[in-house]
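#onboarding

Welcome to the new folks! Below is a worked example of what a typical request in this channel looks like: someone posts a single protein sequence, and someone else replies with the predicted structure as tokens. Don't worry about understanding the tokens yet, we'll cover that in week two.

Example request:
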Amino acid sequence: MKEKGRVFVWSLFDFANTSFSVIIVTVIYSKYFSNHVAGGQKWIWGLAVSLSMIMAALLSPPLGAVADISRNRKRFLLFFTLLSVVCTTLMFFIQEGDILAGFILFVFANIGFESGLVFYDAFLPNLTAKKNYGRVSGYGFAMGYLGALAVLLIVMILLPESTSPDYYFYIRFSFIIAAAFFLFFSAPLFIFLKEPQIKEPVKKELLRIGIKKSFNSFRAIFFQKDYPSMKMFLTSFFLYNDAIITIIAFASIFAANILKMTDQQIIIFFVIVQSTAVLGSFIFGIISDHIGPKKTITITLIIWIAVIIGAFFVSTISEFYIVGLLAGMSIGSSQSCSRSLMALITPKDREAEFFGFYDGLFGKSSAVVGPFIYGIISDLSNERFAALAIGLFFIAGLIILQKVKEPSV
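Example response:
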């Protein structure tokens, strides 16, 4: 398959899996679980996000090392994709008071979604030349936000007014739509994209070897001087990604509780966010190839700080839409450029292992702190002060990022 075909098939997975992140994590299930199932106890939702992230974090590095050794990235990706799809489908049966079942299903669905990203992202270095990492990563995120936009529009058409007696049925039916969308559009990757060839024979006892490799790599990154830029980047990423994931997990709850927005208004808001996220992923992907991902991430983090300040002072829905436009421009671009920078500083033939640290140990475990802090602060005061506290993560990440030495292409 030619490069354009490989990139398109790969990016279709981004198109597919954001149906889970937007419907379950961000827009519908998060608010449905917090306000309806759990009776307004936001800390339980924060705990569910945190727990699922730390479990995915612990799994990802050793599994990434195993995938590098065995060259079975697609097999691992398929397993975690099906785990997420099945658990998301079963969320249809969660109703008021089913806190434990709804909690468990979300935890396993999110583990499947987040763990799969390790193996998906590890395909990037094999798709194109280094000079095109930013552009291709941007295409993937743009496709992802197009997918999110498409599934949001489908749900918005089907969802009746909140006064309808069938309202909660259609809320729950949106979870089935998200699962079906994820499954259908992820299929081309498993059918058409080939695994990178491995020259060495596959060794036995893969899990033991994987755990040992990931432990040695962690020690090399953080306790030796082998990868100083990666150490700084992963620390920075840990902080600002924590803030991004927290915003994604609580955005619809913020909109409903602070601005009293209806579900239809929240969906329209996220349609706007996804639209600008597509544009931001394309534009900043191209910018990244010209000025480098480090400088591009710096720009997006400054925008994120402005978003946090805006969220603290916002008082009308129209003002919130403006904040959403800025967030949309920066959300895809900051994540896309982070993936590009990680691909640049990752050693060849250890992509899945090192992306296990990036997506797993640092990407997922970073989300343990932010959502839990946000949930506690919002319960003790309100969402405005919780959002302001999360802004400190962006500032710290921005400062540490400046110590990363970007390799020349």
